[in-house]
Amino acid sequence: MNYFAYSQQAPRSFHCNTIDEQALAQAELDTHLATQAKAVAPTQDPLTSRDRRIIGEIIEVEPESVRTIWIEGGITVWVQLVGGGRLPFDRNWFATRVAEVKATLPETPRERNERLSDELEKACAVFGLYHGEIDWLSFSTKLYQDGRFVGFIGCNQQSWYARPRQYGVNRVAPSAEQVIALLGVRAAVAA
């Protein structure tokens, strides 16, 4: 006696749709994985825009084309470019050129703000002051000592300025420390 196992097969159109959907899903997954593989985790760039400008000036390329820089064996400075090229330089020659270019490269407004902010922070420490949030458009802030309002201080294109009240005449000086002294604040004494 012969036994036949009977299994019902899905209609041919069902198989085609399933295979097409499966292929489509697989293609979508492959595309997603390829995109993820290309994505680089964000890292903090060790080069500032000023660094890139300096290096670009030295090797005569656009600053945006400089990817990174490293020293190999304490002798050779390598500059990696965005396009994939690498350029080797003698470390001493490169350091000399960096110093020369730094001395002649003009400051950007952002670099100036950062430098002036650092100067203000150091001057406030000397006088035992703290300042509020800095308004970068006019580089101005309020100064406080022991919770008491001391005055306004800021920096414009000409020089540092200070005034004891909201409205009034600005007193000017060439440094943050000197203009703070014009507000009548004495340097903090070390305890």
What brief labels describe this structure?
three-stranded antiparallel β-sheet; 191 residues; alpha+beta; single chain; five-stranded antiparallel β-sheet
Number of helices: 5
Helix content: 40-55%
- List the secondary-structure elements in sequence, H or E: HHEEEHHEEEEEH
Q: What is the number of E strands?
A: 8
Assembly form of the protein: single chain
Residue runs with pLDDT of under 50 for 5 or more positions: none
Structural class: alpha+beta
Strand content: 15-25%
Can you put this structure into words, describing what you see?
Helices cover 40% and strands 21% of the residues. The chain contains five helices and eight strands, in the order ααβββααβββββα. Strands 4-5-6-7-8 form a five-stranded antiparallel beta sheet. The mean pLDDT is 80.
List the helices and strands and how they pair.
Elements: H1 12-38, H2 49-59, E1 66-72, E2 76-81, E3 86-90, H3 91-104, H4 109-127, E4 130-131, E5 140-145, E6 148-155, E7 160-163, E8 171-173, H5 176-181
Antiparallel strand pairs: 1-2, 2-3, 4-5, 5-6, 6-7, 7-8
Helix pairs in contact: 2-3
Short note summarizing the structure:
The chain has 191 residues and is an alpha+beta fold.
